[in-house]
Amino acid sequence: MSVLPDRIMQRFEAVRQMLVNSGALPSNAMQLACPDTPEAIVPRLLRAGADVESVTLALSEAFSMPVYSENLHGPLDYAADGAVAWADGRLFVTDPFACQHLIRNPQLALPRDALSRHRGETGLIPVQPDARSEKIQDPSLSPEAEQVLHEWLTLAIDHQASDLHIVPRDNEAVEIKMRRNGLLLTLREERMVMSERCNYRLISNTLLTLSGNQHGVYNTPKDGSLEMSLRGQVFFIRVNMCPVTIGRKVWGSFTLRIAAGYQRSVQTLSQLALGPAFVKSLRRIVAMNSGLFLLTGPTGAGKTTTFYALVMEILRRNRSQISIKTLEDPIEVQIPGIDQIQINDDIGMSYATGLRALLRADPDVILIGEIRDEETAQLACRASLTGHLVLSTLHTNNSLGAIERLRNLGVHSHLIADTLAAVSAQRLVRQVCPLCATHGYDEAGWEATGLLGLPPGEHWPIARPEGCERCEHSGYRGRICIAETLFLEPRLASRIADGSGLAQLYDTARTQGFHGLWDHATDLVRAGQTTWAECLRILPEPPGEPIQVPESHTLPLQLAFTENHPS
């Protein structure tokens, strides 16, 4: 049983009731017990699921506190001690339950006698302007933090990274990583001291605010986006924040996906390193006027880039006299001449809802960012059956896996056979640096491909990455696409309609001339453009029985991870 005074208990119950009435807390929160100390009340409400804004407004009403909003849009932020927030040289007491704690806080830029005079009051307490209060007057934005973020992103762009990872260690240490050519590498570790630059909490608040999120709340994941001018170009940056616990505190770990901005011209199929056979297959798909085309592959395989190039090819081929509509999450590049719709599940705009609406908007081509659920899969198949060309993605290992995935999503085999026109799968592998590569025989690599069930063929000299200054001593420069395309010819469509398994479908496709990912990989290795180690690291196993690699043959697989990190 709580030992708090009755007046504090009554205020707690009033605040709790307001949060339940506003929907910030579920109805069962009325059974939430009051903590034993006043300072623990607001943290408990936040841990129960209430957001900072709702708690602030409830406290304002329960204690008759004026909410400061003259020059600040939205609620103020909780500081590190959870008690105060700064704005325009004034101190706003966001947690009146912890008012006694304010007097004992040595970090406040307030004279002790001023706090004593306002000890029994709530609301705004005047603060004499000084250098510190001007420096941290708004905890959600900081010029110093923006400069730090600018430096980190510029460093990632100079290294041609696709993602920037900002991983906290504590309030003064942060690890900066980048994903380049599919590998996650550490750029630097920084220790930040408040007097020199700014701490990580201030950087996190700034990043959340710039990306359109509420700052100061780290116990729930967040997504957002921002635009930033770097190296004379505007970049579109997708921001994801995940909560991580370090000690007894929750911090935000950020992943920033970097893409060129709206001014960027989308690359054409000819400009992408897709290979002539894959480009020829994609142009055959562009010539279709109906049917379902699926592009499969893991995250980071370049599917979005390929799809944007495909859309531009359709526009060019039809001289823009065609209606193209897209459903994307998020819209990474805005393309003039097409209608792009942002998916937002929070307001009910899901892929299925958007697709249902698009079917009444007279489209010729529909691009669906991803087929995630049964309803979207059914609608996509029916849209292609009624005369639309539907383009979408699936997360499967290869093109044949898309057929099984559609079956698992509840699409009948007969409907798949009638609507699915083609499926492509693609991967990105690192390309051997042409300036430092040597050539020789890779017996271990050939042995590994034999274990995968591939025909060994002839042994020929292949490229071996050595490393130079131009490739930063990695032996690789850039990436190249490995792809396969499966067209549903009549015999294969008949097998799908009959419910045949993947092994039978694979055999039928091979008799019709289907060349898979490993066929393309073999061609690239033979041409000296990549290595067996890189292919073994990236590509899935060929369709068929699972491969049991003997212990004595694990060296090529290990080389994939060690060849760039010599001891």
Short structural description:
This protein has 567 residues and is of the alpha/beta class.
Mean pLDDT: 77
**Order of adjacent strands in the largest pleated sheet:** 12-11-13-14-10-15-18
The end-to-end distance, rounded to whole angstroms, is 62 Å
Outline, from the CA principal axes?
globular
Descriptive key words:
567 residues, alpha/beta, seven-stranded mixed sheet, six-stranded antiparallel sheet, 18 strands, 34% helix, globular
Description of the molecule:
- This protein is an alpha/beta fold.
- The protein is 34% helix and 22% strand.
- It is built from 20 helices and 18 strands.
- It has a 7-stranded mixed sheet with strand order 12-11-13-14-10-15-18, sandwiched between helices. A 6-stranded antiparallel sheet has the order 6-5-4-9-8-7. A 3-stranded antiparallel sheet has the order 1-2-3, with no helix packed on it.
- Helix 11 (351-358) runs parallel beside helix 12 (374-385), helix 12 packs across helix 14 (413-419) and helix 16 (490-497) runs antiparallel to helix 17 (502-511).
- The longest helix has 16 residues, at 6-21.
- Residues 66-92, 100-139 and 545-567 have low confidence and may be disordered.
